Structure to design on (151 residues):
C-alpha cells in the first residue's frame, strides 16, 4: 500500500501538467450573424432599426456617428504565455447624414492584411478605411497587463 500512494501522486501530477499544457481559445467582442446582417436593407433601414436588429456596436465613428463597427477577436493562450490574438473580424455599417444605412461590409485578416469578406454597398467606403486599418493594425500590439497598469 505504501508504494501505491507515491505512484498515484505522480500519476495525478502528470495529469494536471498535461491539462495545463493544453491550448485554450477565447473570444472577445460581438459580430452579428450573417442572417441578421441580411435582414438589414441598404438604402432603407435606419440607425434605430439596426440597433434593434443587431444591438449596439462595440465602436462608433470617432469624428461623427456615421460608422458603426462590430468587432470580434479570437485569442489563443498556452501555458503561462500572454494571450495572442489569432483572428479578428469587423462588420462596418456606415450611414448617410440622414441616418440611413449606406454600406454593410465585413472585414477579416488574411496573411496579416485586411481583406473584405463581404460587401453590400451603395458606394465605395473610403472614409472608414483609415479607421479599419488602425483597428486591424493594432493586432497583437497590446496585452492586458499594459491596459491595466497605472502610469
Amino acid at each position: 500500500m505504501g508504494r501505491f500512494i507515491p505512484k498515484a501522486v505522480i500519476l495525478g501530477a502528470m495529469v494536471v501538467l498535461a491539462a495545463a499544457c493544453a491550448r485554450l481559445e477565447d473570444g472577445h467582442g460581438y459580430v452579428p450573424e450573417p442572417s441578421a446582417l441580411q435582414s438589414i436593407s441598404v438604402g432603407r433601414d435606419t440607425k434605430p432599426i439596426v440597433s434593434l436588429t443587431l444591438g449596439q456596436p462595440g465602436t462608433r465613428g470617432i469624428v461623427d456617428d456615421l460608422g458603426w463597427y462590430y468587432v470580434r477577436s479570437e485569442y489563443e493562450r498556452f501555458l503561462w504565455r500572454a494571450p495572442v490574438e489569432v483572428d479578428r473580424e469587423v462588420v462596418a455599417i456606415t450611414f448617410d447624414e440622414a441616418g440611413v444605412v449606406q454600406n454593410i461590409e465585413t472585414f477579416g485578416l488574411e496573411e496579416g492584411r485586411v481583406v473584405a469578406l463581404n460587401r453590400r454597398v451603395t458606394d465605395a467606403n473610403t472614409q472608414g478605411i483609415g479607421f479599419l486599418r488602425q483597428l486591424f493594425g493594432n493586432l497583437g500590439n497590446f496585452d492586458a497587463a499594459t491596459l491595466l497598469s497605472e502610469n
Summary: DSSP finds five helices and six strands in the chain. The beta strands are 23-29, 59-60, 67-78, 84-95, 101-110, 113-121. The chain has a mean pLDDT of 75. The helical segments are 4-20, 34-38, 47-54, 129-137, 144-148.
